[in-house]
Amino acid sequence: MPNRQLTPGVTFPSVTAGDVCTPGWASAHRNVTQEQYHEVYAEYGIPYPEPSGTYELDHLIPLELGGDNENTNLWPEPASPTPGYHQKDILEKALHERVCSGQLGLGAAQHDIATNWYAAYREYVAG
Length: 127
Fold this sequence. Notes:
There is one protein chain. The chain has one domain. The chain has five helices and two strands; from the N terminus they run H-H-H-E-E-H-H. The chain has helices at 17-20, 25-29, 34-43, 85-100, 106-126; strands at residues 55-59, 74-78. The protein has a two-stranded antiparallel sheet with strand order 1-2. Helix 4 (85-100) packs across helix 5 (106-126). It is globular, with a radius of gyration of 14 Å. The two termini are 20 Å apart.
């Protein structure tokens, strides 16, 4: 889990479900600099670059749900122990699909993943 003091999770201002459900929206808004990698890893006390496959710089609230590229929405997420970043990626896709199908409100999805992504994973994916 991310450090809530460093990574509380933030979204783009005024983002809507219509925005994030537009094909290509997330990739068009991805803008994390190399400097941010160094800053965020340093804030967490993790050397960067890390060994390949051990961490990914992750958006706590993913771009697919309107998460911003600010450092306060980024954290070095480990691959292990499981669930790690691979499983959170599955959760992000599941929440995006629910938001875009109208089964879940965007605000609720953002809250669930920012508050405790592991609990959201158990609820929406692991069942």
